[in-house]
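During the reporting period the student researcher (J.K.) took over the structure-prediction task from the postdoctoral fellow and processed the backlog of single-chain submissions. One of the processed entries is reproduced below for the supervisory committee.
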Amino acid sequence: MRGWTPQRPNGTDVTFFLCEDAKCGPGSKVSYRLYAPNTTLTIEQFRASQEQTVKLLDQRVPGQKTTILRVEGDNGTGVPRVFRVRRLKVAPDGTKEYQVSGVLFGAKGSASLISTASSETGSTANFAQFAIPVVALLGPSSR
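J.K. obtained the following structure tokens:
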């Protein structure tokens, strides 16, 4: 994608992209990881897992405060579907980072997708930009 530099750290199956363009917000990051199909996760389970994730994130960085701004997703179990959480991380020095983290479900698999940026608008736009091709990867199998 234009403006993004792909990164693939050794020994991981996570694909990272770093923004180097004003359109996506220099320093913004997006990553995704593909998984086997999973249509059993409910929005309630996703919401509960995010509460735990926030605690773990804050334990890693003393003095950091992460707040869940919103959890979105449908109550169904069909595919395709997306669950999203919007978070705000405030570092001990006051630096703010907005995150949109989601689970995308498709017929061929599922994926986690995380977008971080210095603005909520940027993290949301970058998440949406990458969600489209990732959902296409997870789409219905061809016959």
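The committee noted the following: The mean pLDDT is 90.
J.K. will present the remaining backlog at the next meeting.
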